[in-house]
Amino acid sequence: MSKFGELIETHVPVLLDFYAEWDQACKDMHPVLRDVAAALGDKARVIKIDIDKNSELAEALRVKGLPTLMIYKNGEMKWRQSGEQDANTLIGLVQEYV
Fold this sequence. Notes:
It is a single chain. This protein has helices at 2-8, 24-40, 55-60, 87-95; strands at 14-19, 45-50, 68-73, 76-82. It has a single domain (2-95), classed as Glutaredoxin, CATH 3.40.30. The chain has a 4-stranded mixed sheet, covered by helices on one side. It is an alpha+beta fold. 40% of the residues lie in helices and 26% in strands. A hairpin with a 2-residue loop joins β3 (68-73) and β4 (76-82).
């Protein structure tokens, strides 16, 4: 969990994607998140977190639906939503915190 603190304690926004390899909606989000990361460049970070490998963190953050997306900045959660999103929506949301 201390590593998680280091991930989110940044001045640039961090988009977290909580996913599972076995979930089709999560698989569908892979290319979308790649596009988001490419569009934002070094203005933000996109980090994927496998809930099967990080079950303690997923439980602590009450991740129920997949995929669950969160935006953090300076250690504070700014936005959260479960379900698929399109690249333009995510880019716009993250840019609000750049």
